[in-house]
Amino acid sequence: MNDVAGNGADFAASINGQEWHVAWYPPPDPPSGTPHGAEAVCAAGDRIVVVSPDGQRWGLPAGRPERGEQWVDTMRREVREEACAEVVDCRLLGFSRGLCVRGPQEGLVLVRSMWGAEVRLAPWDPRFEMAHRRLLPAEEAFRSLAIPDGLGPFYRRLFAEAAISRPNLHGL
Questions:
Q1: DSSP state, residue 7
Q2: Residue 40 forms beta bridges with which residues?
Q3: SS3 call for 88
Q4: 42 Cβ partners below 8 Å, 6+ apart?
Q5: Which of 39, 120, 123, 158: disulfide with 62, CB 3.0–4.6 Å?
Q6: What is the DSSP letter of 168?
């Protein structure tokens, strides 16, 4: 399966025991919904940074906004906290918009900014929820992600958008 999310096309996903309809929206304007933070494909040289709380389930640095934070500020803080890395350059790739259609949060609409970032790694000194960091080639990083059921096309789109300015990410 090699499908990639199109603009505004919903994908049904099971996330934390709830059913969501998730769609990709291109920049620069976020779709309607409650701001829910940022997520980033972080490149350190020719490798992608993935993080994990337990060494088993790997993901991209991501998190929720703090009061008054702009999208980019949330991304920079989360990358610093979760990956022990400083963003040296970044580009807004798009937005996710998720509508909860079944579960305790039914009706909730969450929007997250999605980024491509060049990072400079700091010494590994985890102080937050992530206890592990790995640097992997792009294809291996993509395969290692714990992607919620139904969101494969969304994450293929994220990596494809990140590849526009990073030739080593092409082919995912």
A1: B
A2: 115
A3: strand
A4: 48, 49, 60, 61, 79, 83, 85, 87, 117, 118, 119
A5: 39
A6: G
Residues of the chain with pLDDT under 50: 1, 167-172
Q: Could you give the residue ranges of the DSSP H alpha helices within the chain?
A: 71-83, 138-144, 152-163
Indicate the pTM of the whole model: 0.92
Classified as helix, coil or strand, 98 is strand
- Six token digits for residue 14: 């099971």
AA letter at 72: V
User: Identity (one letter) of the amino acid at 172?
Assistant: L
Measuring CA to CA, which residue among 69, 6, 85, 2 is closest to residue 35? 69
Q: Read off the pLDDT of residues 34-69 as tens digits, 9 standing for 90 and up.
A: 999 999 999 999 999 999 999 999 999 999 999 999
